[in-house]
Design brief:
The chain is an alpha/beta fold and 126 residues long. It is built from 4 helices and 4 strands. A 4-stranded mixed beta sheet has the order 1-2-3-4. Strand 3, helix 3 and strand 4 form a beta-alpha-beta unit.
């Protein structure tokens, strides 16, 4: 019973992703909520479905992300790898400061180009 309650809590928590295909064929994936262990699988499946519609680069709008851990970063890397196999790349948009910091700490800021509208990645303190 306790395990069922825990699994139900995992399934209902986390993040949501939606996708939009523009007239130019570019896909934008908007992620909202927590990108973590509980949501990583679902987010990746939704993003992967959106990538099947992509023709080139894919925008990932992170403006609604409230939390991101290593599993969330893993989702971004997997999406980028899939986009690259299709001849495109992932551009991050509206990156929240907490996610920008993780990207900088892990070196992934060099992996993901950011659109002009995205906040710059803060420099380390001290």
């Amino acid at each position: 019973m306790l395990m069922e309650t825990w699994l139900a809590a995992l399934a209902s928590s986390g993040a949501d992703a939606s996708a939009h295909v523009g007239a130019d064929g570019r896909v934008t994936i908007a992620i909202r909520g927590e990108m973590d262990l509980a949501s990583a699988g679902s987010l990746y499946r939704r993003a992967r479905a959106a990538l099947s519609e992509a023709d080139g680069d894919v925008r990932v709008d992170l403006g609604g992300v409230t939390f991101c851990d290593a599993q969330g970063l893993s989702v971004l890397v997997r999406i980028a790898n899939d986009a690259q196999r299709q001849g495109g790349r992932v551009l991050l948009e509206r990156v929240p400061p907490n996610v920008a910091r993780l990207l900088r700490i892990t070196g992934l800021d060099r992996r993901f180009p950011m659109s002009a509208g995205a906040p710059s990645i803060p420099e380390p303190l001290g």
